[in-house]
Design brief:
This protein has about 210 residues and is of the alpha/beta class. The protein is about 40% helix and about 15% strand. The protein has one domain: 3-Layer(aba) Sandwich (Rossmann fold), CATH 3.40.50.360. Strands 1, 2, 3, 4, 5 and 6 form a 6-stranded parallel β-sheet that branches.
Length: about 210
Amino acid sequence: MPEPILAILIGSTRPGRVGPKFAEWFRDSAVAHGGFDVELIDLAQLNLPLLDEPNHPRMRRYVHQHTIRWSRTVERADAFVFVTPEYNFGYSAALKNAIDYLSGEWADKAVGFVSYGGVAGGTRAVQQLKQVVTALRMVPVVESVNVPFFSQFIDADGRVAPSDPMIRAARAMLDELLRVTALIRPQLDDVDPGSPAVPELAASRA
């Protein structure tokens, strides 16, 4: 069986951002972990315009090529990690825009968070994101990587120099993402929706 695909999404697009630095560090951690086929997605490179689809994303009647490409990218991933800053107690408009473009493509996938900021380490942004991803039927894991006063973890060469707690948190989150993904994805592929094993789905089809 191929390894599940973990998509790491850089949630900041502004000039001077440090999101790519933390995303690249976490990507290297994920590759070393060995449980996933790892992909890195940069919203700045994706360059989605402000939501411009005329139809509700639940319908998947997309009319723009940028949306079709984005849909395919999200669809093929089995799990996600959002790398997010904290702006005014929340997360970035670019990340919300990218999320809102789609609907069903996000569902039934585990999601973790690497956040960075000041004293709160980006945790207030993560709390808002958890409400949004839950509405999309994603499964946020409890484990996370939260980086307070992030500049202290960037060395003279502009690379992330993680603390021991950051390293341990990344490993714990990757382990949990893999565990939850193993529970979610095979079940969706192998279980007949009409089976007694999933009575709530069977009832909805009656």
